[in-house]
Amino acid sequence: xxxxxxxxxxxxxxxxxxxxGAILAKIEEAGFRLVATKLTKLSLEKAGEFYAVHKERPxxxxxxxxxxxGPIIAAILEKDNAVADFRTLIGATNPADAAEGTIRKLYATxxxxxxxxxxxxxxxxxxxxxxxxxxxxxF
Length: 139
Ligand code: CMP
Hints:
The protein has helices at 12-16, 20-29, 44-50, 60-67, 82-90, 103-107, 122-132; strands at residues 5-10, 33-40, 72-78, 116-118. Strands 2-3-1-4 form a four-stranded antiparallel β-sheet. The chain is α+β, with helices and mostly antiparallel strands. It is globular. The structure holds adenosine-3',5'-cyclic-monophosphate. Adenosine-3',5'-cyclic-monophosphate binds at residues 54, 59, 62-63, 93, 111-112, 114, 117.
């Protein structure tokens, strides 16, 4: 149901450190249901498409280079108030500012390599979910 879903990616830094499973476990423990998931790798072009909204930012090149540097886990998560609750669970974009116990506090190292992505609105959650998953893959 729209409004109860968000899109996450476990980013290449966390996958390289073997934290993919631990992060998914934390997400499930927090009450989110996995309704779509895949291990995949973004090409530079696809990363650019996903983050097109940040095209004018000075960190855009670094961001899409990093996001295409290795495998990621993409997942659609379902829970009441999914977008806001998930952003609380992952913590601030910069792990230095992230609250204790949040996923970024536990697993992220820098603002660029910050372990996980979470959609910032219901509208973007739908767009981002459809970016990775066909309708048949969304349960
Ligand atoms: P994410 O939530 O995936 O969405 C946009 C990403 O841009 C963000 O996480 C950060 O990883 C990245 N980002 C934001 N600010 C910076 C920055 N100053 N330098 C590098 N990357 C950044």
